Amino acid sequence: MQGFCEQTNKVLQLMEAEGIEPNIVMLNVLINAFGIAGRHEEALSIYQHIRESGISPHVVTYSTLMKAFIRAKKFDKVPEIYKEMESYGCTPDRKARQMLQTALMVLEQRHWRRWLKLGEVEVTPEIKHGQNKSDAEKRQTHR
Fold first, then answer.
1. In this structure, is the dihedral angle defined by the CA atoms of residues 61, 63, 68 and 69, taken in order, positive or negative?
2. What is the C-alpha separation between 68 and 142, in angstroms, rounded?
3. What H or E segment, with its residue span, contains residue 91?
């Protein structure tokens, strides 16, 4: 994939040198190529190029960028990208919402692990089995 990134980047540079503006599809392909190659920062720089060029990103642009950050395990950036997508008036599709949910789930798990490591949360049977205390109490009173 490394070679594909470089080839795509060269095509982009050649297009710009010839005065040909790359379209959003070409730029989305480049974001995806960098994401697959694990080069999320370069994927982000292509997105920034899109914004600076006045090209309107669409839901595929944002979803592809979110996917690049998920692949790089940089889950904390995904909600930021999602919020930016909404703030620019781009309507998230099912895939974008699923990626946000995935990132938020991982971030929540990390949060709980951090609390557990600090010893600030007692792991009760209810927590261990995904129940809140009121659910467990309700079952106790109905027996």
1. positive
2. 49
3. none
Neighbours of 99 (CB within 10 A): 23
12's tokens: 């982009």
CA distances in angstroms from 40 to 58, 71, 95, listed in the order given: 18, 8, 19
How do residues 63-83 score in pLDDT, each as one tens digit? Answer: 999 999 999 999 999 999 999
Q: Which residues contact 27 (CB under 8 A, 6 or more apart)?
A: 12, 46, 49, 50, 55, 61
pTM here is 0.73
For residue range 78-134, what is the model confidence (pLDDT) as tens digits? 999 999 999 999 999 999 999 999 999 999 988 877 766 666 545 556 545 555 444
Residue with tokens 């309107």: 56
Q: Evaluate whether 142 touches 136 at the Cβ level (below 8 Å).
A: no
Q: How far apart, in whole angstroms, are the C-alpha atoms of residue 102 and residue 75? A: 8
Residue type at position 54: G
In angstroms, the CA 94 to CA 63 distance is: 10
In the numeric block, the tokens 């470089």 are attached to: 6
Is residue 123 within 8 Å of 116, Cβ to Cβ? yes
